[in-house]
Amino acid sequence: MQRSTLKRWSISLASAMASLLLAAAPPTQAKVAQPTVILATTTSTQDSGLLDELIPLFEKQTGYQIKTIAVGSGQAIAMGKRGEADVLLVHSPDAEKGLVADGAGINRRIVMHNDFVLLGTPADPAGVAKHTAQESFQRIAAAKALFISRGDNSGTHAMELKLWKAAGVAVEGQAWYQQTGQGMGQTLAVAAEKKAYTLSDRGTFLALRKNLGLAILHEGDPSLRNVYHVIELNPTRFPKVNSAGGRAFADFLVSKAVQARIKEFGIKLYGSPLFFPDADVPEVDAGRR
């Protein structure tokens, strides 16, 4: 083979190899103007471990970096009202609707659901097992059995207060009714230590139950449905929010790939899913599948 021909062949081979290497390499993340996205969310999404799985995936795919502030839904929504976050993931429907109606939040979209469960020791001193949610709360009050409340204006706390109201029980000032002012994980730990009743979202309980000694004493009541929505902050109201980042995270949560991950989350570790995806169902049907 002549030297000139060999040289041309070598150059062509090198070019072909370079093309193959470029094709095999992962795509480079596009640079984003505002890389930090502030997510205000309920403690249940953090305590259950769901965000630990989803956020690294989002960051790898997009180049954004999520700063998570896990508080009660009420506190997260209050942050939204002040423009102190870019996107919310919460589960307090009445407060969420108020945020959107006020113009602070936009594009409220359903993400997933689980449900609330009434927990206590297996001994069940108030005898709530096999009763409705309303009857269970009435029996706890009648027995003056210790009940531990989050007391933090969270979605779980709002649901609990709604259940007490439906049961016709005024809890404020009652010695048997105690509030932690803490998130779900801490409240479960207190309830376990004091052998008390408490209300929890199912996901957080399943993730932490190994070390609690608490049992589900009431579940499956239609009134205990627990639905999560993602809400973007309104850039017209709050010009400094990272609206592009907030929208990217919201779109990520309702995407088919992430909805499939939510569906599988928890099965390997706990034997059942901690959440059920709802982005593909009408709002009226969420939580009823």
Description:
There is one protein chain. By secondary structure, the protein is of the alpha/beta class. Helix content is 43%, strand content 20%. It contains twelve helices and ten strands. It has helices at residues 3-24, 43-47, 50-62, 73-81, 93-101, 133-143, 155-166, 184-194, 202-208, 243-254, 256-264, 267-270; strands at 36-42, 65-71, 87-90, 105-120, 147-149, 177-179, 198-201, 215-218, 225-233, 276-277. Strands 1, 2, 3, 4, 7, 8, 9 and 10 form an eight-stranded mixed sheet that branches. Strands 5-6 form a two-stranded parallel sheet. The termini are far apart. Mean pLDDT is 86; it is low at 1-28.
Percent helix: 40-55%
Give the SSE string: HEHHEHEHEHEHEHEHEEHHHE
What class, by secondary structure content? alpha/beta
What is the 3D form? globular
Uncertain residue segments: 1-28
Distance between the termini: 72 Å
- Sheet with the most strands, sense and barrel status: 8 strands, mixed
Taking all residues together, what is the mean pLDDT? 86
- Radius of gyration, in Å, reads 24 Å
Total beta strand runs: 10
**Alpha plus pi helix count:** 12
Q: Strand share of the residues?
A: 15-25%
Which features characterize this protein?
289 residues; alpha/beta; two-stranded parallel ribbon; 12 helices; globular
Kindly summarize this structure in a few lines.
The protein is of the alpha/beta class.
Q: Which SSEs are present, and which pair or pack?
A:
Layout: H1 3-24, E1 36-42, H2 43-47, H3 50-62, E2 65-71, H4 73-81, E3 87-90, H5 93-101, E4 105-120, H6 133-143, E5 147-149, H7 155-166, E6 177-179, H8 184-194, E7 198-201, H9 202-208, E8 215-218, E9 225-233, H10 243-254, H11 256-264, H12 267-270, E10 276-277
Parallel strand pairs: 1-2, 1-3, 5-6
Antiparallel strand pairs: 3-9, 4-7, 4-8, 4-9, 4-10
